[in-house]
């Protein structure tokens, strides 16, 4: 195999659009020697989020051997794996609702915490993933980065909507802080695959000329035998509704958070039924306010809070800009606050 492309996220950076395009064009890509395998053991078959989940929640790891066996037996020139959970697991594995058994409020709140040992666990996850990949001439790690304040606002909306937290927004930011030190996260991937093989793209409209799908194919060097990325991208079919994960309106967000606080005591089976009802109700409350368009802003932070929140990532962002994008000015994000 010539090349493996690992699209590791981050979530909320157009990943649904990228994965939807890859899934919708599986047959076309296959004719060009590009494999985007189907993940058959979870509901979401357009992505490979199950890999990080299996490596984190060990009760699912039996799914992995069959999946990777198929990859070792394939004859494609290029293999593409896309799962945004690779960027934030196993950190988020401590944040999400436990995957089995019953739960009470104290356990639910205790389960939400930043893990001080996250680097060792993340390094182990990356190492285990690397050991399972087929042999290849090159591994490209592609990552899209969104400014930390905008990302945390977006992921908070998603976690409240999903029923995973009743925490207030400011406390929630502490839970994800490990994932937002992009320099430390990317260093672990660079140690495994080489910094020259880590391709960074910035999730800002002006920095994504041609759109997220084109930028992804260019960053991953995904092309047919002729080596022409642009020609391949031009032939891709565009799937309908590539942003099916709309955000909640402010009213729906507040209502859903209160509902989540009342649900934490429920056993898993009951919680799933209640959560399905609550999610539908929150979506209905959102109406047209929650379209889920690309580059949407949530505005949960004041300007003063935004500046203070971003200050803790300033030096790390500058390091990423210099190391992976060759920007001597150290400016990673260019959109105004």
Briefly summarize what is shown.
With 337 residues, this protein is of the alpha/beta class. It contains 17 helices and 5 strands.
Topology readout:
Blueprint: E1 3-9, H1 15-24, H2 26-31, E2 34-35, H3 49-56, H4 64-72, E3 78-82, H5 85-88, H6 105-111, H7 118-132, E4 138-145, H8 148-162, H9 169-175, H10 177-180, H11 182-193, E5 198-202, H12 212-220, H13 229-235, H14 250-263, H15 268-286, H16 303-311, H17 314-325
Parallel strand pairs: 1-3, 1-4, 2-3, 4-5
Count of strand segments: 5
- How do the helices and strands follow one another from N- to C-terminus? EHHEHHEHHHEHHHHEHHHHHH
CATH topology: Rossmann fold
The largest sheet, given as strand count, sense and whether it forms a barrel, is: 5 strands, parallel
Computed over alpha carbons, the radius of gyration is 20 Å
Strand line-up of the largest beta sheet: 2-3-1-4-5
Low-confidence stretches: 96-112
Mean of the pLDDT scores? 86
What percent strand? Answer: 5-15%
The percentage helix is 40-55%
CATH class: Alpha Beta
Total number of distinct structural domains = 1
Our count of helices gives 17
Q: Name the CATH architecture.
A: 3-Layer(aba) Sandwich
What is the molecular shape?
Answer: globular
Structural class: alpha/beta
Distance between termini?
44 Å
């Amino acid at each position: 195999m010539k090349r493996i492309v690992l699209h590791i996220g981050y979530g909320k950076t157009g990943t649904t659009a990228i994965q939807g395009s890859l899934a919708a064009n599986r047959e076309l890509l296959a004719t060009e020697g590009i494999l985007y395998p189907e993940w058959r053991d979870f509901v979401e078959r357009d992505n490979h989020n199950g890999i990080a989940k299996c490596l984190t929640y060990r009760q699912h790891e039996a799914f992995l051997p069959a999946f990777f066996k198929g990859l070792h037996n394939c004859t494609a020139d290029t293999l593409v794996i896309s799962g945004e959970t690779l960027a934030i697991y196993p950190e988020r594995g401590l944040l999400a609702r436990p995957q089995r058994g019953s739960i009470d409020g104290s356990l639910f709140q205790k389960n939400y915490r930043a893990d001080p040992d996250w680097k060792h666990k993340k390094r182990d996850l990356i190492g285990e993933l690397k050991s399972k990949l087929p042999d290849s001439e090159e591994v490209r790690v592609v990552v899209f980065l969104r400014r930390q304040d905008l990302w945390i606002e977006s992921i908070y909306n998603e976690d409240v909507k999903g029923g995973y937290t009743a925490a207030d927004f400011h406390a929630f930011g502490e839970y994800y802080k490990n994932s937002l030190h992009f320099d430390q996260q990317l260093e672990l991937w660079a140690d495994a695959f080489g910094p020259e093989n880590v391709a960074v793209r910035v999730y800002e409209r002006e920095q994504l000329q041609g759109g997220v799908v084109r930028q992804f194919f260019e960053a991953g060097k995904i092309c047919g035998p002729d080596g022409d990325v642009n020609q391949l991208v031009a032939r891709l079919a565009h799937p309908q509704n590539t942003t099916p994960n709309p955000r909640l309106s402010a009213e729906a967000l507040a209502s859903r958070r209160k509902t989540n606080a009342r649900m934490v005591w429920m056993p898993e089976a009951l919680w799933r039924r209640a959560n399905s009802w609550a999610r539908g109700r929150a979506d209905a409350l959102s109406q047209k306010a929650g379209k889920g368009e690309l580059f949407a802003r949530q505005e949960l932070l004041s300007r003063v809070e935004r500046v203070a929140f971003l200050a803790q990532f300033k030096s790390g962002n500058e390091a990423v800009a210099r190391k992976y994008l060759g920007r001597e000015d150290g400016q990673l994000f260019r959109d105004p606050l």
